[in-house]
Amino acid sequence: MDEKEMQRCFESAVELAKKGGELIRAAFDKPKRVDCKGGYSTDLVTETDEEVEKMILMTLRERFPTHAFIGEESVAAGEPCTLTDDPTWLIDPVDGTTNFVHRFPFVAVSIGLFIKKEPVIGIVYNAPQDLMYTARKGMGAQCNGREIHVSEQTELCQALVICEVGGTREPERMEVVRDNSYAIAMPPDPAHSVRAVGSAAINMCLVASGCADAYQEYGIHCWDIAAGSLIVTEAGGVVMDPKGGSIDVMRRKLLCASSPQLAQQISSCLKDIDLPHD
Ligand code: IPD
Ligand code: CA
Question: Based on the domain organization, do 22 and 80 belong to the same domain?
């Protein structure tokens, strides 16, 4: 893809994330229709998730008819979730749906573009707080136009680490969630503390901005982390498989950190599990 086309993709993603964010803000304080997904009373979806995804997909399909698309709600409705070498947009229309339902103000639109299975554009718009995080491969990461950078933390015992519970409640995965948070919070090398913000995309932007030092989760999906993964690496951080090696966004596990040293310390205390691929 040439530079002009890449810039057109970038500008479209920023424009649509903003538009999606306006829909989220308009609905934020209003009563919502809340449904559950996949048989879990903890995995929520609202009409705003569907409305935002429809709006983003319709515009991107018009502008980029040869590209491929993976959207959280389209996949939930039965569309394929296949990442090929083709330019592919990965969209999470409302990341932090449970936060949105409860008016906990960490809710984002996340739009990533992958080419040859690698992220080239990452946009995360934290709508309630009006924070627009942007990244293009090789061009750094910004928040509202200002450069952001990960913290310089290399020591787990001085780190603030984000550990999420996730939306579903499979007993095997929940054991790993429990044991991993415990391992990070307990001696011999306890982190300063652990946090759960409730939006994978925002968690990654917090690491990218140096407000948190690391984030690990088992159970996330490709649309949760597609945009954030580029924002973290462009901000100087590390994004990897929790047990080492490069990340596969379809494998539903993630570790990101401000430094390779911190990532390694966290990795060594994590229990691993294989989950069904996206
Ligand atoms: C969820 C959020 C949450 C994470 C879950 C995700 P959703 O996305 O990102 O922080 O723990 O794994 O599924 O359902 O709000 O779009
Ligand atoms: Ca999500």
Answer: yes
pTM: 0.97
CA–centroid distance, 21 to ligand 1, in Å, is 17
Residues 97 and 192 in one domain: no
Ligand 1 atom closest to Cα of residue 98: 15
Q: Which atom of ligand 1 is nearest to the CA of 224?
A: 9
CB of residue 278 inside a 6 A radius of ligand 1: no
For ligand 1, is residue 200 a contact (CB within 6 Å)? yes
Across the range 64-89, mean pLDDT stands at 97
Structural domain contains residue 117: yes
Q: Residue 100: CB partners within 8 Å, gap ≥ 6?
A: 24, 27, 28, 32, 46, 48, 94, 107
* Residue 278 lies inside a defined structural domain of this protein: no
CA-proximal residue: ligand 1, atom 2 (nearest): 199
160 in the same domain as 29: no
Question: H/E element holding 92?
Answer: strand 88-95
The mean pLDDT value of the chain amounts to: 97
The amino acid present at 60, given as its one-letter code, is L
Three-state DSSP at 21 gives helix
Domain end position, chosen among 147, 178, 209: 147
Tell me if 227 sits within 8 A of 254, measured CB to CB. Answer: no
Span 215-272, pLDDT tens digits? 999 999 999 999 999 999 999 999 999 999 999 999 999 999 999 999 999 999 999 9
